[in-house]
Amino acid sequence: MNTKADREEERVLELLDAVGKRSDVSQRHLASNMGIALGLANSYLKRCIRKGFIKISDAPANRYLYYLTPKGFAEKSRLTAKYLSTSFAFYRQAGDSCVGILSQCEIHGWRRILLYGVSDLAEIASLRAQERDVQIIGIVDPHTELNRFAGVVVWHSLSQAEPFDVCVLTELNTPLLSHERLLKEVEKGRVLVPDILRLE
Length: 200
Description:
Layout: H1 4-21, H2 27-34, H3 38-50, E1 54-59, E2 63-68, H4 70-108, E3 112-116, H5 120-129, E4 135-140, E5 148-149, E6 152-155, E7 166-169, H6 175-183, E8 191-192
Parallel strand pairs: 3-4, 3-7, 4-6, 7-8
Antiparallel strand pairs: 1-2, 5-6
């Protein structure tokens, strides 16, 4: 799934992309754009300068200008291609995994499906469900502030959810912990895990 190394590369790509678009970008703007602390953005910037991806020069008013080097452009292209390749692979695998789960639901006569976890996987499951004789009644996610996602209602606890036949785990950040939490509230036979999550 999304390993620490993948997240590191995504952040480097975001930084290279931001510098490529605007050389007078501030470190504060970079941090805000990347959704990370200022100190962490500074650390990534220094690492990219050390690796020769970014060149720095002084500008008036104690500011700096950042430029992508040819090596930086090459790295940005490499990371972009890798990101697109893994994204397409994920969507294809997730789609196949959801079709397998939804087929299993149809075979067992489970029509009312609850998803557990707002994520790309939940969105894919919702889209794939439209092609089948099942209904996604909603999503439970205690960690989101959203009230709707992928065209369905979002509840913040299982006690709020409407009656369901089966619950499908779609949480991507900590699926193992979410699975354990789910099994404390729903009997094992009514919890399905898409094979893309590789919990077994």
